[in-house]
User: What shape does this take?
Amino acid sequence: MKQPAVYIIASKRNGTLYTGVTSDLVQRVWQHKHDVVEGFTKQYSVHMLVYFELHADMESAIVREKRLKKWNRAWKLRLIEEENPNWYDLYESIL
Assistant: This one.
């Protein structure tokens, strides 16, 4: 089932971060993990799902993603650590 989501993936704990939005979180994270799409996440080996939020509609998800992208790195790290202090890869939890 598709549901809008905002997500943050990382290369490792405190590593390179990527913030994105999607209507199908499982599929999109799979694409990142398997380097299906050329770009930032493939270039920097950003594959661990460390944070996500589900949204009722795509419009609210896009607004949230744009806000998160403007956040400084320290705020993003704090957000991740509040929800996922051990930096587990959350991909298995969404399957």
